[in-house]
Amino acid sequence: MTTHQPPAPQAAQPTWQAAAGASYPGYTSPIPVVRTHLGHALASEWTKIRSVRSTMWTLGVFVLLVVGIGLAAGALVAANASEGDLNGENPLSFGFFGLLLGSMCIITLGVLTTASEYGTGMIRTTMVACPSRGRVLAAKAVVFFAVAFVVTLVSSSFVAFAQVGMLSDARDPSGGEWFKATVGVSLYIALLGLLSLVVGSIIRHSAGAITIMIGLLLAPLVIALFMFSESLQDLREALFEYSIPSQLSVFYATSLTDSGPSGWDPLWIILGVTAAAFAGAFALLQKRDV
Amino acid sequence: MIEAVGLTKRYGDKTAVYNLSFQVRPGAVTGFLGPNGSGKSTTMRMILGLDNPTSGTVTIGGHPYRKLPNAPRQVGALLDAKAVHGGRSARNHLLSLAQLSGIPARRVDEVLGVVGLQDVANKRSKGFSLGMGQRLGIAAALLGDPQVLLFDEPVNGLDPEGILWVRNLMKALAAEGRTVFVSSHLMSEMALTADHLIVIGRGQLLADMSVTEFISANSADFARVRTPDTEPQLREKLSSALTEAGGHVLPEQDGALRVTGLPLPRISDIAHEADVRLWELSPHQASLEEAYMRMTQGAVDYRSTADQKAGLQQPLPPGAQPPMPVPGQGQPGWYAPPPPQQGGQPFTAPQGAPYGGQPPAGPYGAPGAAPAGQPNPYAQPAAPAAPVAAPAAPAQPAAPPAQPAAAAPQAAPAAPAPLTDAEPKSEDAR
């Protein structure tokens, strides 16, 4: 499992030697010195993310939730719907529930990718091996985003195909609907995970960061549910519309409300929030002590 | 080459490291010593660019760590044996670090072999013992085959074989021309490994010198003199004669005398003139531990106190004595003061020499306050023995605790307290 990397050609290249260590007298290593870049950090982060069990657990539960709930919802609807009930319905929209629950797994994995290094002290080893801290955060973000996107895309596409097959009464989704319900929603979930990763880097504490992200996911909806006062009507509407579950449902064109974000809006919103948080995390990382 | 200039680190209003300047040269093992909480790890973190100094700079080969080209190939560090993700196998842990530093992956198996972890390479490091964790940390430090190596407490938790291995490893690394900077609490280990010492206390530099210089500067080599056990009055006679001749006499627990400031032949002459027979007259070379303890005893932040068990013990029967506390090494004053001529200031003692100049050790001779001929002070069962013994020992001002401790707060065990209390106050006042 360690040999996926081809052993770098070395030992036969004496010209590489003494490239950097020669600034003052002393020992010179025979191992060739290479200038490191983001690619090295990406390989390292890929090794890290695939070599811990929490990745397998969180992604395994994620796939189980998305596929399990998606198929169960599809089967239930198919079994109980009477003739004509599903006319004009988008069959892809039943993938929503699985992804909503599954997003918590992606949040957890995102937080753990950064915060667990602080919890274990591994971050000090990492930062000694790579003093350019921004590169480490960037590599983590890229690797995690790719993993989260691919896993979400595969499981949401599988569920989409299965549901279209099961709900033969419903209308055939358009190409645009297909695209939003697979690629679009996967980008959204992966960005949500990336936001968690960034929050983990800011908070540096796994449990704290996970709590914050779960709160962000659920609190607006729950708070809005209990806003009975007439004077708070507008705030309540906004909380409903911009809550993450509501934004997620926009990808299936079954928004919980009729106003608020629509089309690809949720993607731009989370992209902006994540970018802002990333900039903050980057600045903090440069400034703070590890 | 590591070079620190005016390095200072504050956390809030606590100053962890203050105005520290030193150089660590290649080709030697440099020991980094200091009591717990003296700022050793903070200094190491600043060297590695993990913590930003509040003021001052520290450079490696002329560059601050975070600006160092190919940093992991020039510097390797073991900071904390448990600074690994416990769920990752040893090999994957090292592999991720190798990839991050652009080191060929097969180097991972090499260093695993060097530290002897090849058999557990695929086990998750969560199950590693402290010693195995240390070995993994050393493997990570050696991964880049670097020119500069920092080890924070490398022998913690290692078995004797591992300690020997680390000792030889450090020496071998230094012999290859590398810079090796090692912190440790194990003085015996440092005495064997290090060539040069940097000692800090409360975040300030106490000493920066070679090991042999350090020992001779901070430990009065003393003579141990023993008079016949059967005749305690000879002992008193000799100690007053030696004191008169300018020597410094400290009674030891077993009845011997510790004499500083007089050469051995002179002691023999004085004893002869005073007509005192000697059972022992031996030179004593102080150890590094002793020298270190003496130097840092004023700079120790965390010092144990006696376990009083207040209110939990049954009241002693009237007339009975509480047992004497074990005279602790490392309690203030246990080690002899520097010889009068040599002084204790080979190093730059900061701020009016709070650490260097020792007060006269008179009252602190108390731990050895056992009447001659009774080597075991704990064997004294009855109270009357003590008052009898006290006048017979004029060289020991602090009388043995004759009353129950509750009735005598000023009893002997409390004697070291004024020093312990006064020191932090003078520190805080600055």
UniProtKB/TrEMBL annotation, chain A:
The chain crosses the membrane at residues 56-79, 91-115, 136-161, 181-203, 210-229, 267-285. It comes from Streptomyces griseosporeus. Keywords: Membrane, Transmembrane, Transmembrane helix. It holds the Pfam family ABC2_membrane_4. This is ABC transporter permease. The keyword Hydrolase does not apply. It comes from the Bacteria.
